[in-house]
Design brief:
Elements lengths: L1 H6 L29 E2 L4 E3 L2 E2 L4 E2 L2 E3 L2 E2 L4 E2 L4 E3 L2 E2 L4 E2 L4 E3 L1 E3 L4 E2 L4 E3 L11 E3 L4 E2 L4 E2 L6
Parallel strand pairs: 1-4, 2-5, 3-6, 4-7, 5-8, 6-9, 7-10, 8-11, 9-12, 10-13, 11-14, 12-15, 13-16, 14-17
Length: about 140
């Protein structure tokens, strides 16, 4: 799945080396953006944060594409954020793939956590989707 493929980019020795080897070159669409800003109060653990992003909340085990915004008190875990995604203050995103320019409004919840051995269900949003403030997109749901 897309989620599993992106998660292979993370870790000390990722299964897929995004930098390539001396014999391989990896080309990607790249818009010139300023470097990312990670606030002093933000927390990032085992994540890839592309240029142009602003991080004020917590990001763990996730891929954050170009130009994303994660607000203060927001949490993103085990997820993939496509370019331009906005996670507003206090929102929680777990086990999700959020489409390009998606918005998770303040205090909304996307996805969830899973008990050991329980099947993980990934929540997915389409391009330009909006998850309204204080609403819930349950594990496995699509918007």
């Amino acid at each position: 799945s897309l989620w599993e493929a992106n998660m292979e980019l993370l870790g000390k020795e990722p299964a897929f080396d995004i930098r390539g080897t001396s014999h391989d070159k990896i080309y990607a669409r790249n818009s010139a953006m300023p470097s990312s800003y990670i606030d002093a109060k933000a927390k990032t653990v085992n994540c890839f944060i592309a240029e142009g992003s602003e991080i004020f909340g917590t990001v763990k085990n996730s891929i954050v594409s170009t130009g994303c915004y994660i607000g203060e008190g927001a949490t993103v875990e085990n997820s993939v954020l496509m370019p331009g995604t906005v996670i507003e203050t206090g929102a929680i995103v777990r086990h999700a793939i959020l489409g390009e320019n998606s918005r998770v409004c303040a205090n909304a919840v996307v996805g969830g956590t899973f008990a050991p051995g329980e099947t993980k269900q990934i929540s997915v949003t389409q391009k330009n989707a909006i998850v309204p403030a204080s609403s819930v997109l349950f594990p496995g749901e699509m918007l």
